[in-house]
Amino acid sequence: MAVEKFSGAGDNVNFGKPFWTSVAADLNQQLTKGAPKDADSCKSKYNKLKLVYSTVHEIIQNSGWAWENECGACIGSVNEGTWDAYVEKNPKAAPFRNARWIHLEAFQMMIPADAPACGETVHLSMAVPRTD
C-alpha cells in the first residue's frame, strides 16, 4: 500500500503526516482484527521495517553470500563460518540465515538501490541526479 502512495514521500523517503493519515485510513477499512491504526502507529511500524530492510540490504550487499528471495542468505556449510562471524557483530541479521523477508520487494521499490548507506541514523536521499 505504501508503495502505491509513494508519490506522497518527501525527501529522504520520509513521508509527511497527510501520507500516514491516508495509510491509516486505508488500513482501517481493511482491518479485521486488532486496534484501529492511526498516523503515528503506521509511521512507527514503517520505521521499524525500514531498519529491518537496512539489515537485509547489508546481507544482500555482502559478496560472500548469495541472497535468494525464497531462502534468505542461503547459508550452508561452505559459508557458515563467515556468516557466524557476521552475526556475532550484527545479531539482527540472524533470522535471515536461510529465511526470506516478505517485505523485501516492496522496500526495494521504495528505497533506492544505490543508496550509500543504511541504518538507524542514516537518511536516504531521493534527489534526482543533476545532468548539467
From TrEMBL:
Residues 11-86 form the Myb/SANT-like domain. It comes from Mycena rosella. InterPro entries: Myb/SANT-like_dom. It holds the Pfam family Myb_DNA-bind_3. This is Myb/SANT-like domain-containing protein.
